[in-house]
Amino acid sequence: MNVLNLPLGIMGMNEWIIIAVIVLLLFGGRKIPELMKGLGGGIKEFKKATKEEDKKEEIK
Predict the structure, then answer these.
(1) Between these two residues, 1 and 37, which has the higher pLDDT value?
(2) Would you call 32 exposed, middle or buried from its count of C-beta atoms within 10 A (0-12, 13-18, 19+)?
(3) Measured torsion, CA atoms of residues 15, 21, 25, 27, in degrees rounded to the nearest 10
(4) What is residue 9's DSSP assignment?
(5) Are 24 and 32 in contact (CB under 8 A)?
């Protein structure tokens, strides 16, 4: 059995292309950089919060 054929397995290139086209249609080319910037900022805040939580646990 091929790993890529699993029903809940890894997404193939066709699925990624479809998702990219849908995102382009929904948000347009101008909004995508803003969305990615916001996503990056959210990930950065999440990492910062988890590091702070780890430091609190080490002190206890």
Answers:
(1) 37
(2) middle
(3) 80
(4) S
(5) yes
Residue-wise pLDDT tens digits, 2-59: 555 555 557 788 888 898 888 888 888 888 888 889 989 999 999 999 888 888 777 7
CA 38 to CA 20: how far, in whole Å? 18
Structure tokens at 47: 């990492």
What ranges make up the beta strands (E) of 1-60?
A: none
Do the beta carbons of residue 36 and residue 28 sit within 8 Å? no
Whose tokens are 């780890």? That residue is: 54
Per-residue model confidence (pLDDT) at position 44 = 93
Q: Is residue 7 exposed (0-12), middle (13-18) or buried (19+ Cβ within 10 Å)?
A: exposed
